[in-house]
Write a structure and sequence with these properties.
The complex is a heterotrimer of chains A (about 290), B (about 280) and C (about 250). By secondary structure, chain B is an all-alpha fold. Chain B contains 12 helices and 2 strands, in the order ααββαααααααααα. The longest helix of chain B has about 35 residues. By secondary structure, chain C is α/β, with parallel strands linked by helices. The chains are: A mainly alpha (about 290), B mainly alpha (about 280), C alpha/beta (about 250).
Chain lengths: ~290, ~280, ~250
Amino acid sequence: MRVSQLPMRRRVWNLGARVLLYLSAGLTCGLLVLLIGTICARGIRGINWQMLTTAESVLRGTVGILPAIQNTLFVIVLSLLIVLPLGVGAAVYLTEYAKNHRLVSLIEFATETLAGIPSIIYALVGVIIFCTALGLQKTLVSGALTLVIMNLPTIIRSTQESLKTVPQSYREGALALGSGKWHMIRTVVLPSSIDGIVTGSILAIGRVVGESAVLMYTVGLSTAMQDFSSLAAMMKASGATLTVALYIYAKERADFTTAFAIATILLGLTVVINGAAALAGKKLKKV
Amino acid sequence: MQAVFFLCGLVAVGFVLLITVYLVLSGLPAIRQIGLFDFLLGSTWAAGQGQFGILPLILTSVWGTAGAVLLGVPVGFLTAVFLAKVAPRRLADVVRPAVSLLAGIPSVVYGLVGMIVLVPWLRDALHLPAGDSLLAAILVLAVMILPSIINLSETALAAVPKEYEEASLALGATDLETYFRVSVPAAKSGIAAAVVLGIGRAIGEAMAILMVAGNVANMPALTKSVRFLTTGIAIELNYSAEGSLQRQALFSIGLVLFLFIMLINVLLDLVLKHDKEV
Amino acid sequence: MQEEPILRIQHLDLWYGENHALKDVALDIPAHRITALIGPSGCGKSTFLRTLNRMNDLIPGIKISGSLTYRGSEIYDPAQDVTPLRKNIGMVFQKPNPFPMSIYDNVAYGPRTHGIRSRVQLDEIVERSLRSAAIWDEVKDRLKKSALGLSGGQQQRLCIARALAAGPDVLLMDESTSALDPISTSKIEDLAMELKKEYTIVIVTHNMQQAVRVSDRTAFFLLGELIECGDTEKMFSQPADKRTEDYITGRFG
């Protein structure tokens, strides 16, 4: 029986290509495993209850990152509170109201530009505009406001994506029942695009948690407890978030156990946030 | 209500204008005082002696980005081909979240691992006096741009019509020959966009390389301590006095970096437009 | 028809998971003839065509048993590499699918894949294939232009040229005119009748007039079974099976 096979040269090429593909994918995964392994191996022993629930104490010689956790939460909440209405509003305008084609592409161009600006530039912008020009000084509020600009594209985009998938028939149905446009948007369009809004918010939280350059220069470097008891106190609160604290412990205090402990916590948060984003996309999607 | 939404829409445009205007206004005075020529082409940055030449910073950013792209693009591109075409479904379902985790890890964490693991390793392996170097920064950047390259390339590859691949297989090409000779060329503008995005990320990264590059404003060399445009800003921003020439020169670096990024955005736009025409 | 059939299929069964898509099919395909496979949609004619060059291998959960031989060698022999097989048995698809490359590169793709690098040789193959596919005069001045700029009919003839350039001796055409206008269709039908001098052609068509116009032999499939096969003229004038008669007289399908 005549059986024909690939010529040698092609067989070698195919084998080589396959090996390269597997090697590259293996390298990518290997790097991740190496990273996670290193971080956890050095970080887990630094994590304990006291560290998570107290501020550091020079007197007792204990480490505590509670202030960094609180500061991070404060920045997340404040920046989301401002960016969500702005971003969702902009997305609603773009998909539901805008008729002027030029204006739409101008806004979309602006959004893309904002998304492409690196965080060190945002750091400068925060320093120039919020800390100095608006006189907010280095405070958590300055940092949160800077992150509002940075996260605006994230919220606009994911809301817009989701709004685009709301079937036109829903809108027509609501309008045919005599509801006004705003009423239609509020009762029909926004609820059906909740998946995009939630996913966008989770992504924004992820960016705030992971951001360091902006916060490094806008929120201050204190690792002491901040006072959040009144509005006036909140306006003045100034201190390191988790990422900034990591940098301080690693680079300025050479306390690598604590730095890796914070890195482990950040890694864990990244896993949770990625998982939540994937889940939100799946579970909240209304077909 | 329409007016409210309209205003929300304009906010993004307003922010871009605000950023541009403030960067230009804050960046120009120092350039005017130092002189554009001395600023861009001066080879010494020594704020203490009043020398503000950023040529070493510009060259470091260019070389650093080129190095990261040179290492990161082949690995990222091949991983994308693997994920989009070759990987068994179950394996792809494991690798994909791994890639998005890689994308989500904060840059200070990359910096920390680079500083504690990579830098000492380089020092010992290459017998250097110190491991903080352009090479260390390139390696960290190469890993950091991997996810953007993988994700965008994979999306482009997955969008190649099945008909092209079927035709190639029916002509007697193997699956791999088909992917590399038909699918990849068909997805080339998406892959090019991925590379441009990677360049953008590499040139804009600050904190991770701040922790591994040594931050001395040398002319770039692989094993020397170097300062990038981004780290040039980062290293002195907290220590420069408000209103000083040093602080203003940092804003000028920011302006230069901003222009670089804008250039890259234009490039990206061209790449994507080219795609629509074909 | 004394000579050995170029393709011989015996006891072919095919399952997609639980679905028994082809049932005990036996068919000889003679060289230098056009064999038409007809039948209502879902009857298995396209599936059958795709077993001949193993394009079905790509579908997960597929199971094939029986014997298929090409020039006496077993197509599904585990030691048989599919790529040389597909080089010998070319295929033209339902929708024109030229690669997003130049016309020249489209035609040269097959020979390049099979290791031909010489420019002179490639030029020669490209011209010969484009001439055989009756499209040379229309494209000879724009070989470097994108193939996507051609009309649908031209694209399909380019795809035929591309298939010919790989050097097959069997050409499978899977409803290759169904996406085209009548003028392009008749050009491709004329082309097929010209090509049978050198090639063996198997076409799947849902158009019975087309089968009558171009084919020498016709095989009628219904619900995965080969109901009847014979000379086209005879089958359309005196079908042996009642079901064939019902189908060709338009009672169903």
